[in-house]
Every structure is written in structure tokens, then in C-alpha cells.
Amino acid sequence: MEFIDSHAHLHFPAFSADGAEVLQRARDNGISLITVGTKFATSASGIDFAEKYDGVWCTIGLHPGHVHDHNFVDENEETHDRPTPEREFDEARYETLVSHPKVVAIGEFGLDYSRIPEGIDVEEFKNDQRNVARQQLRFATKHNKPVVIHCRGGATADVTGAHDDMRSLIAEEISKGGIERRGVIHCFTGTIDDAAKYAELGFLISITGIVTFGKSVASAVKEIPLAQMMIETDCPYLSPVPFRGKRNEPANVALVAQTIADLKGVSLEEVARVTSANAITLFRLS
Ligand SMILES: [Zn+2]
Ligand SMILES: [Zn+2]
């Protein structure tokens, strides 16, 4: 059986001591993967990692969490004391990376209204994120790549609408003949209705280990057709049951697949076959 972990961060510092071993464990379990960039530095280092191994591809993009200064360092992701935000998507810089044969998509980028830095105007914050997302949709169109979208709603009741805003941006780009190859909403935590609206736009959704413990994701997964689905770990984050709180790794994508199989009453082979085919088609993996 072959699985594709459609969204991992295996080139992050979280794996600097044992990335090759972790990758070997994934391969022993029939798992290939896409390692995802989140800013210029991790886009470049993702290419360095992917070019060393068969069955590993990468993406380049600017995550919404790196657009503003958060006064916070994710040590799983970077080692700087205080990372400098990328206020704009610097197209010329990313242009130097995009033609590498291992780069299969633009992302992860999108909207994240869940962590708003103190002292910033909320509308300005959302606008900045929307601008940077729009720049990357255009960049993907220009280079005929699919997109990997990160979209998370607000932590509070007054900061909602991330999925609605994201769909407007996608629809706007499609209406101009853009993003012909479409893309995926990674780490999907929306409703069945959200998934259906993304399907109308030709977008896949990707399911993480949250499905092993999150009731709303599990109930949505029952209804969303497998034909619209991919699977991912988003490692080192989001470990599935029974590894919650530990560092996640690509080998665990099989647990995500098994949970989906159980929820939908289909075989593990079926989940592996359909989700892998979806990833191969979207990202043109060979
Ligand atoms: Zn993400
Ligand atoms: Zn990610």
C-alpha cells in the first residue's frame, strides 16, 4: 500500500537531528511526501531537502503567520531569536526558486485569523493577509502551479469569515482565468458546507490527525467524498491519537487514513488508493 503525506515539514529544525531516519521510517511504510515551505528561508531549505531524496517533493510560499511581527518564535520551524516578518510576497526572490523540478506547488499561503498580534487594527491585519494571499494566487497562475492553502478562522466570535474571504479570493482569481490547476485547502477544519463550496471551485481538502480526536472534523469527513480528499500529517505538528503531544512524523499518516476508512466504512486500501491518486494528479508527481 502506498500513501502520500501531502503536507509535511520534514525539513524544519524539529527534524534536524534525525530527518533521514524519520524519512526512512516513512519509506518503510510506503509513504512519499511533500515538504512545505512557509517563508523564503524554509522554501529554500525545503528544496535543499527534497533534492536529496526520491519520493520527496516540496512547495514554496509565504504563510500568513509570517506576514506580521508576532513577537513569537516557533522553534520547531526556525532558529532565529526574533524572525523578521515578510510584509509582502517578494515575487522576484521566490522567482529564483520556482523553476526547480522538485517544486510542485505554491504555498502554504492563505488566511489565518486565529492569532492576531496585540495592538494591530483587525481590518488592517486581515487586509494585509488578503493582499499577500492574492499576490501568491497570481504567482501560481503565472507559473501554472497548483496552490496549497492554509485557512483558519478566528479564535473569537468577532473575527470570523476566513473561509468566506478565502473563497472570494480564489473565485476572483479563477474569474480572471487563473489557477487553472486549482489546489488544496490543507488541514481542513471547516464544515461540510465549506467543503462543498470548495468542491464547486474545484478544490480538494486535506485531512490531518485532528480527525482522530476532533468531533467536528470527524463528522465532516463522513460526508465529504473521498474523491475530494487527500491526507497529511502537517508534521511536526498535529500528532494523531495515540501520539498526541509528541512530535508528529510522516509515518503517522497511515493513522489518519485508517481513521478516515473507519469513519466512512471503506477499506484502508481504498483510502490509500484514492488519496494518493488525488495527490499524484494535483501535484503531477512522477
Ligand atoms: Zn498550515
Ligand atoms: Zn503546514
Report on the structure:
The chain is of the alpha/beta class and about 290 residues long. The protein has one domain (about 5-285): Metal-dependent hydrolases (TIM Barrel, Alpha-Beta Barrel), CATH 3.20.20.140. It has helices at about 20-30, 40-50, 90-95, 120-145, 160-175, 190-200, 215-225, 255-265, 270-285, and strands spanning about 5-10, 30-35, 55-60, 105-110, 145-150, 185, 205, 230. It has an 8-stranded parallel beta sheet. Strand 7, helix 7 and strand 8 form a beta-alpha-beta unit. It binds zinc ion (ZN) (2 copies). The site of one zinc ion has 5 residues, from loops.
Give the topology.
Blueprint: E1 3-8, H1 19-28, E2 31-36, H2 40-50, E3 56-60, H3 91-95, E4 103-112, H4 122-143, E5 147-152, H5 162-175, E6 183-186, H6 192-200, E7 204-207, H7 215-223, E8 229-231, H8 253-264, H9 268-283
Parallel strand pairs: 1-2, 2-3, 3-4, 4-5, 5-6, 6-7, 7-8
The structure holds zinc ion (2 copies).
